[in-house]
Hints:
Mean pLDDT: 81
Number of strands: 2
Low-confidence stretches: 1-14, 335-342
Largest sheet: 2 strands, antiparallel
Amino acid sequence: MLGRFPMTGFLPLHADPGDNIIPLEGWRYFTAWSFEPLPLIMILLTGGLYLYAVHLLHKRGDKWPVLRTVYFVGFGLGSLSFALFSFLGTYDTVLFWLHMLQHMLLNMIAPVFLVAGAPVTLALRTLPKKPRKWLLAVLHSMFGKIMLFPPLTTFLMIASPFALYLTGWYNLTLNSNAAHDFLHVYMVVVGCMFFFPLLGVDPVPLNIPYPIRFILFLLTMPFHAFLGVTIMGSTRLIAEDWYLAFGRTWGPSPLEDQTLAGGLMWATGDITMFAAMITIFIQWVGDSKRESKRVDRAMDRQDALAAKRAAMAEGGAVGYDAQRRQAPATTDADTVGDEEHQ
Length: 342
C-alpha cells in the first residue's frame, strides 16, 4: 500500500492502530522514507520516457525548452515522489495534516507542473506516424472532449474533497489498501484533467477563452476555502475511530491535527489557484502581443502590396505619357497634303 509503512532503515513498521509507531520527530522528517515498488517503477518509467523523447528531438536537431523538462521531471514527478515516498507518504495514515499536505501535492501542485511540461506536445513530436494519429484521434474523440470538458473537470475538482471528507470514503481509504492506492491515482488524474485544458500548454479538444479560464479558477477557490474552514472549525473528528485508536503521545492532538489540516487545505488551495491564474494572465498577455504582431505584419503586407500596385499603376501611366511625347506630331498641313495626294 502506498505510504502505509513508517520505516527504520528498510524494515517496515505498519502504520495501523495498535502498532508501536515511531514518533515523527527531529531527523525522522528527513529519514522516514518508504518506497513502494509499483509507484516507484511507474514514476521512473514516466520520467525515463520523457527524457528519451527529449533526447530524440535533440538527436534530430530539434529544440525542446529546458524549462519544460524541469517542470515535468523535476517539479512534477519530484512532487509525486515526495508526496508518496517521504515522511508524508510514510505517516499519511497517522497524522491527518500530513495526509492533507500529501493530498494537495497530488491533486493541485504536481499536476500543474506535469501539465506545464507539455507531455502531449512532446509525444506528438516524437511518436511514429501511426501512434501519433491514435493520440490525436483520442484527443479529438468524443471521449476526450467529455473527459477534458472544463465544467466537468471543475465540478470534479470541487466535489471530490467534499465527497472524500464528508462521507465514508476517507474512512474506507484508511482501512483498505486498494482504496488508499486508488485515492492517490484519482487525485493525480483529476488534477491533470482540471489543469490540462485551462493551462492550455498542450493541444486540447476545446479551446477555452481566457476569461472563462479565470472564472473556472475563481470558482474553485471559495469551495476549497469553505471546506478548509469547515474542517478547521469542526469539533467532531474526521475518521475519529481510526485516529483515536493510535493513542499517540507525540505530535499535535487529534483535534489540533485536524485544525492544521483544514488550514493547509485552505491556504494551499488558494495559493495554488492564485499562482495558476497568474500563469494564465501571463499567457493571455503573451498571446495578445503575438496576435497584435501578427495583425501588424498582415497590415504591413497589405500596405506594401497596395503601394506596389499603386507604383505599378503609376509607372504604367508615366510610360504611356512618355510614349506619347516621343511620337511625331501630326499637323493640319500634313493632313491636307495627304488628302490632296489621295
